[in-house]
Design a protein that fits this description.
By secondary structure, the chain is mainly beta. The protein contains 1 helix and 8 strands. The strands form 3 sheets. It has a 4-stranded mixed sheet with strand order 3-4-8-7. Strand 7 and strand 8 form a beta hairpin. The radius of gyration is 17 Å and the shape is elongated. Bound molecules: zinc ion (2 copies).
């Protein structure tokens, strides 16, 4: 019993079984993540995603640069995840990266 089984599906070797994918090819892990269908950035929460959407619905709704609305990029195995620098409870305890 010393042999190892190699996964025959090597095309997505870095993608875990629980990855969530989007039609653009982006993927991420974690329930509650939000992926923007417009700019295809991935956010840690709906709240973070909402933050980068500015303008009025149906008029000039568009995506802002996440850094301009106070979000910070976190490097994940699947790419950049945008999140709040502080805990989601609203306290501003931003710390150096
Ligand atoms: Zn967007
Ligand atoms: Zn996408």
């Amino acid at each position: 019993m010393t042999h190892t089984v190699t996964d025959p599906q090597t095309e997505t070797a870095t993608r875990p079984w629980n990855a969530i994918t989007h039609s653009c090819g982006a993927w991420w892990t974690g329930l509650g993540r939000a992926h923007c269908p417009a700019c295809h950035r991935t956010f840690s929460t709906d709240g973070a995603a909402n933050k980068h959407r500015t303008g009025k619905h149906g008029i000039d709704r568009h995506c802002a640069d996440p850094t301009e609305v106070g979000l910070v990029p976190v490097q994940k195995p699947y790419g950049v995840l945008w999140q709040h620098p502080a805990p989601e409870d609203g306290r501003d305890t931003r710390r150096p990266a």
